[in-house]
Amino acid sequence: MPIIRNTTTALLFLIISLILVAGINWYAIENVSTLMNKEKWVSHTREVMQKTEIAEKLTARMNTGYTGYLLTNNKKYLTPFIENIPALKIAIANLKTITSDNPQQKKNIEKLSKLIKKLTAYANNLINIYDEKGIQNAKVLINSNIEKNILKDIQQQFFIIEQEENRLLADRAEIVRQKARLVYWIQIIGTLLIFILLLLAYRLMKRELIRRIKAQKETIHTAEELDRYFSLTPGLSLISDFNGKVHKLNYRWQKELGYSKEELDTIRFYKLVHPEDRQKAVEAVKSLFIGKNVNDLQVRMLNKKGEAKWWAWAAAADSKRKLIYTTAHNIHELKTTKENLSMLTERFQLATRIGKIGIWDWNLKTNKLIVDSILKDIYGIGSEEKNLTLFWTERLHPEDRKYMQQKIRESISKHTEFNETFRIIHPVKGIKYIQTIGKVFYGENGKPQRMLGVNWDITEKIKTERELKKVKEKAEEATRAKSLFLANMSHEIRTPMNAVLGYIEVLSRKLTDPVQKEYLASMQSSSNALLNLINDLLDFSKAESGKLTLNKQSADIRYIVHDIESIFRLKAQQKNLEFVVEIDKNIPDSMLLDELKVRQILLNLTSNAIKFTDKGYVKIKVSSQNIDSKKADLILEVKDTGKGIPEEHHKKIFQLFEQEDKGITRKYGGTGLGLAITMQIVKLMHGRVILDSKEGSGSTFRIILPNISITGKMDVPEKLKGFHLDNLIFNPATILIVDDTPSNIEVLKAMLEPQPFIFLEAANGRIALEILKHNKVDFVFMDIRMPEMDGITAIHEIRNHEDWSHIPIVALSASSTDFDSSQLKKHGFNDYVRKPATESEIAGVLVKYLKYEVKNQVKNEEQQELSKETISNFDNIISEIQKEIIPLQKNLLGLRPRAEVKNMAIAIIDIGKKFKSDEILFYGEKLLTANENFLFEKEKELIEKFPDFINNLQSLYNEHKRKQK
Questions:
Q1: pLDDT per residue over 643-679, tens digit each?
Q2: Are strands 294-302 and 308-318 parallel, antiparallel or unpaired?
Q3: How far, rounded to the nearest angstrom, does the alpha carbon of residue 938 sit from its chain's CA centroid?
Q4: 816 Cβ partners below 8 Å, 6+ apart?
Q5: What does each C-alpha distance from 598 to 550, 595, 941 come to in angstroms?
Q6: Contact, 900 vs 891, CB < 8 A?
């Protein structure tokens, strides 16, 4: 056989090549040690040379040592002589050790050792003569040339040792070169022989490979033809033997049933068949063994997931080869469609009967209309009517007839759905309202063929909607009347309340008698309670009428919570309650919120928590979840350890004017409006309120506000609430007060009395315009509702005047309908204050637009020189600031909890007091004032610029030192 012969020869050549490779490598390895010894020998020679050089140097030092002593009579020169003798002995011993394998070198070193001993003895003798008999006797010995001869012999012996080592190295190098040359030629010849043998083996193997590839291609071609047949089969194809072993199957088995060929080998065919069809399948297989073919065997096959589908099978057996050929196609959709169509028809008929929906079918070619019995009943059509198309047209209400005909034409021409409401005139029941939906079907040529649709009677629905609309209009009218009444009442009540609360604040500043101040505090408390009641009523009225709107802007929930904390912490301390604020670190820096509404939620919940808790704690927790780059859910939670709420009252407390029981109002006060308003605000924000409370176990109110937009970092706006006029000194300015109520003007003037202001008064907008013509005004307070010319009209006139458009104008209004910040700003107002206004609110708007200083801080911040105490204690001041203040400052560059800022301010003040440094003390007082008065922007600036302040002090100190020099 050629193939066997070629293979055997090629293998023989390969074996010979491997033997050659192994022999060459063995020989090379045997000589590698010799080659490697070259480096070893070089290292050995280098080591001998180094140790010889060491011995030479030690000998020279020893000679120099005793010679120096003889010349100078200084015994310090004897030290190297004495010390080098043992070192020289060690060096000679080392030379003997490393040259022990060379007898010649051993003799050379032994001779060197004797010469060195001779030199040592000579030196010792010379030193003794010098010490005992003097220099003259020593010179006799020196001039005898004994030393010179010894040194010459030693030098000669060192040279001999080095020459011998170089000779040995040269001999060894020559041996290495000879062996390397031999290995080189052996490898070249061996490589050529291996190349020739491998080439011959390749030629023989290639010839055999070509023959085998040809045979494989023939086999593959046959298999590909069979695979092509199987792949083109749309259904399942299978070839198996009589024992059930699979020989061939197409890919659709895996796709349709999910089984591989290997899995089918282990599964009997009948187990793939639905149990209800299994007997039928077994009978069909039996018939194959007796020579019968199987045609259209419809059974349900189970896939790997256990799902059943209908398949139609055909099979035939080859008794000689013991093979079964099987094909199947999927009929599941066809089978189920028939069943579903029958079921849908029944359901549709049932639905039309229940819903009294009539069906119509209009042939657009023949103009013939077919309707069912329900539609006939709707229209009042008798069984004798033949031309239903004409009858339908006549039944249409005359006012709707032309419109309906036009809509039908449009639906046909524009290929749109026909969906209309129209009227018909029933022969017995009169006018009916009908709802119709229809669809046009088109032929292959694009022309309309038929129109199919349904009709149902909506007369009762129309009547109900009209009645509801009337009821709704009456309710809306009543709501509008109520809102108008409440708005007017708000204006009428707030106007005198403005004077009452305003004068209370003015008197509280002026009165000093404790009893009188106590009476005044009671009056203020009662007035505030009345004002809160008015605010709650108006807020709920807005929510109930759907007029409560959101004014969203970027806000940091942290600062809202800290404001709430500052409001309620004292009240909690008065009740000996622990007040806890917990803010998760994952809260976004700023979110798009209605800050006032969120604040109102927290105010209502926190106020209730403190009101109904006698011991334990009240906790505000803020967190966030479902956070992505654009949105997050905001969660506000207020928890207390108070009396708790029985489960049956959970829904009741969120209703208008409702509390847990009537005794609550008598014991704790309140109107029951807070939680109702909270619920309305939360609903407006598309959020939800979750209450977790049991009687005697405290309460947890959880507010979830979903999908709040994240707006990125923002500069926190200045919070001026709580900034009192007593703390401020304004620059001189002219203020125009426009109000039709004299008491409002007087109370405002009384509040601002200590300030260097000139006041101008106007009872309406028209008078205000006249005053502006003849006076330079720096600031305007303007009421909204006034006779002759109201505030809105007046501000339009002012903003359109070139000389007045820059003047800051703040709206003052007692009306709830006027108090809309976004609308007021659109009209041109810079800001707004709601009556009755407190001194802190008045101060809050004035500091935004007029120049001022904070009391006890009227100092030139840009100092040109330092105080004596600061200079004398400067290093200690800087040391303590670096140690105590800078770490606090770095932690407050992001979130600034008010308590931590206060701690930093107090620490700075303590350092200022300790070292009597006015500059440090002044900076700490500025930071503390900003913190206590909610000047967050100023607080932020002072914290961020603290390192600059220290650097400025350092510069001033350095300048002082320079001048001193």
A1: 888 877 766 676 644 444 444 444 444 445 667 778 8
A2: antiparallel
A3: 30
A4: 486, 487, 490, 538, 541, 542
A5: 10, 5, 27
A6: yes
Query: Kindly report the CA angle at 724 between 765 and 504, in degrees rounded to 5?
Result: 70
* DSSP of 138-184: HHHHHTTTHHHHHHHHHHHHHHHHHHHHHHHHHHHHHHHHHHHHHHH
Tell me the C-alpha distance between 636 and 620, whole Å: 8
- According to the model, what pLDDT value does residue 343 have? 57
CB 650 within 8 A of CB 583: no
Spatial separation of the C-alpha atoms in residues 77 and 61, rounded to whole Å: 10
Q: Where are the alpha helices (DSSP H) in 545-578?
A: 557-574
Q: What is the chain's Cα-based Rg? A: 55
Nearest by Cα to 817 from 617, 557, 548: 548
Specify whether the CB–CB gap between 279 and 299 falls below 8 A.
no
Q: Would you say 248 and 222 are in contact if contact means Cβ atoms under 8 Å apart?
A: no
pLDDT (tens digit, 9 = 90+) per residue, 729-762? Answer: 888 899 999 998 888 888 888 888 888 899 999 9
pLDDT at position 39, please? 59
User: What's the rounded mean pLDDT across residues 289-295?
Assistant: 79
Long-range contacts formed by 748-752: CB under 8 A, 24+ apart: 748/502, 748/781, 748/837, 748/842, 750/502, 750/503, 750/506, 751/502, 751/505, 751/506, 751/725, 751/839, 751/842, 752/725, 752/842
User: Model's pTM, two decimal places?
Assistant: 0.34
**Cα gap 326→301, rounded to integer Å:** 14
Classify residue 356 as left (phi > 0), alpha (psi -120 to 50) or beta: left
Going from the C-alpha of 892 to that of each of 463, 633, 921, the distances in angstroms are 67, 26, 20
Residue 639, H or E segment: strand 631-640
Pair 655, 649: CB distance under 8 Å = no
DSSP 642: S
State the chain's mean pLDDT as an integer: 77
Q: What's the token pair of residue 73?
A: 């009579």
Tokens of 727: 């703390």
Q: What is the pLDDT of residues 698-726, one digit of tens each?
A: 899 999 999 888 876 444 334 334 456 76
Phi, psi of 448, deg, nearest 5: -65, 135
| pLDDT score of 509 more than 80 | no
